[in-house]
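Figure S7 source data.
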Amino acid sequence: MFTPIDETDADQVPAKKIIFTGLDNSGKSSIILALQRTLASLATLAPTKMVERTTFNYLGYQISSHDLGGQKKYLITYLKQPGKYFTDTQVVIYVIDIQEPNRYDESVSYFKDVLAEFKNLDVHPFIYVFFHKAEKILVEGDPESDKEIQGSGMQRAKALEKKLFEINAKQFPLEFKLTTIFDLWSIMAAFSEIMLKLFPQSVLVDKALLEFAVANNLDALLLLDSNSLNIGAYYRNKDSQDIVRSSTPYFLTLLDSWKPFKIGVQQKQMKVTLNDYAFFFREIRQSLHNSKNKDAYLSLYFLAMTMNLKFDVGKLEDFSKMVLGIIKT
Ligand SMILES: Nc1nc2c(ncn2[C@@H]2O[C@H](COP(=O)(O)OP(=O)(O)OP(=O)(O)O)[C@@H](O)[C@H]2O)c(=O)[nH]1
Ligand SMILES: [Mg+2]
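Tokens for the predicted guanosine-5'-triphosphate complex:
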């Protein structure tokens, strides 16, 4: 649900530009669709022709995502006219299909070319390499692979990581993530981390979440934006983190499924109990004063998990005012 926003709105601050690049068929467009949770379109996804742009909103900031089609002829075009495709980039998400070892060299080679062009342009983005299609590692417990492929997925990822790390030679901030569309959280979490790099005020939000969660005996407390990206999070321990990790995408999908129905104008609230645990989902809204449309608002969501089944969800209302105060500054 990346909300398209009015690009002609002169009041908007300049967009942050994120490019998705890597070889064809590595999964770039699928990652973007997963972030939008429009997974139904995955079945019909065609190779991307040149560049597809999507604009979305994160905490009232414009983010402009550029999906660079990965077919050979396009890669040549980008490298020939780097000024046109690479300037003003804050973040590069470089996607590699981890299940395709016989294309690793080709991908490493393009990675090297891309970095060289950024250096020539004197542009210094954060670079995130997504080792994508990593469901064998993340979901299936990383079994040793069959004969054609050497070693476990994790071993191959580590070897690739080393190569890319050496090519980068500390020129750009570089990080590695394992992702798969079969674990939506892996994509949400990686992307949230990227957003938090761009908007560091969230460190304060984390602190506020921790204090509130401890005071109210919560096992986990998450603040998400309307694209389901984490703005901040508190977990009591690894168990609570794992439970939240596997269930949050389903709550969000459930909320999405209500979108076509008019269920009143009031802020959305949901309570789900599962054995000893209760989950509270609560929308909070902040009006967007910088917008032409006076009724425009920014929606954020709290997700609280607790064994205190009588938790007073109304308390999140006051707390949200404080959090919104932090985000606004
Ligand atoms: N197994 C697996 N397949 C995936 C995953 N993500 C995407 N795919 C599949 O990989 C294929 C290519 O995905 P795309 O998203 O179109 O790849 P792309 O990088 O955008 O390709 P170009 O537009 O040609 O550059 C599709 O058949 C997807 O369904 C994943 O996490 N695991
Ligand atoms: Mg594509």
